[in-house]
Amino acid sequence: MDRIRIMASLVILATFTVSVAFAADSEKDAGMNCDMFNIEEILDESTLDIKTLKDWHVDEVTGTTRQKLIEINVADWWPGQDYRIPVRMIVPLEGKAKGFSITGANPYEGLMEDSRPTAFQAKLLAGGVGIVKTHVKAFRQIPGKRGLDQKMGRQFMKDLNPRYTTLWIWSMTLMRATTAAYAETDHFEKGKVAGSGSSKNGMSPAVALINDERFTATCSNHAPAYFSPTRSADREEVAKAEEANKAFFEAVKAGDIDLDPQRGKFYQRVMVGSGGGMRQMALKAGKSMDEMQAFADRLWSSACVTENWDRLMERGVDVLFQPGTHDYVAYDILWGAQNHPQLPVYHQPSGGHSQTPHVATAKDEENKDAFLWHHFFGGEPLLQPPKSNYKISKDKLSVSVSFNVGPQPIDGRIWWIYDRAPAGSAPFLHEQIPADQWMDMERDAKTGAWTATIPLKDGFSQIDFFSNHGREVNGYKQYISSPYTQVKR
Prior knowledge:
The chain is α+β, with helices and mostly antiparallel strands. Helix content is about 30%, strand content about 25%.
């Protein structure tokens, strides 16, 4: 196997391990999907070793819910190392909750106190849907877990067992919290289980959805959905990113690009082609590049929803990804649109980890609430992924976006960027969509399509564009994006 490709793959894996790493259980084949997890381990209530911190009670904040706080053992991660995490369960004052919304995006200290439901959570509870809150965070943010990442890394490098990676334990946390909630048979009955969140809390419910059939939906922000050539470390794609990185930092050094030093360090750490620590760990542990590449390929093919699409659709799950256009873990939006246009996505223009969204970003977007409401209660249908067409004529780009299936939006807005750098490179992250490169679209009364005519500047080689379209659904403003498109001139 080509050494450049292998090294690049390690960098990609290392980058994602730092931010939202993926994991699987390579030793067992009894999991719901391939060898990722063991279903018996997930469902075994006896090994939860539950410690009740505060039993069921009417909450002391609003007096409108019943809540219970427990601590569970997610897993005996390796011999002598358990992984205990708090879980707060919230149900209506009367009756059982049927299913629940679950997320790990909760501060540890906040979990220790009775929770005040948000306005939307109050509506879920009023409809008989429960809330389960747990803690999926970096180890340094969890009391008693500091330094666990180094121990995990040593376990992983012994035999490349992907059980010993962060997203295995993060995803397992959600699945084991689900087991703990359903063990409360006086307060929960089986129903839909929808995960949601951003970054590690966007990827972990997606992995849980793939591997645990009790999960029925994921709303995942700033998380990857595709196993693209760049993500699989295709030699040509990685070479493009490395060339762009070299030119970018040479321009920074020459003073042609004004770059904050801390921002530059951030790019160096997360960009495709960076010198990540995984490679050094592998070499020190005596692991070959072939072993590491095979590991990475197996993981990515099992972690991405689009790689498991047919099976997920047969289960009737709901999926929404909101990757942003400038994110280091969701850089494959162009390839994804070209190869998996069926995936519902919303692109926040210039959005992503540590990014400032574009000035023309919709301020009334309520996608998560619209998605979860429809998932649990039905009602008005959501907007479905549209199709787009374009035509270049001299100095103009004409774009047409059509919603051929489902309801029609009531508005449309388009953004574009010229000569964008290769996916995952430092300039790909750095060069934002210019403030003036957007416009509202018009609806063609005859065809129902949303149209825009973009005046093209001189001297460009390619232009990327996408549009966002919205409507109010069940009382919430939902937006969905047209396929992210790149046109070469």
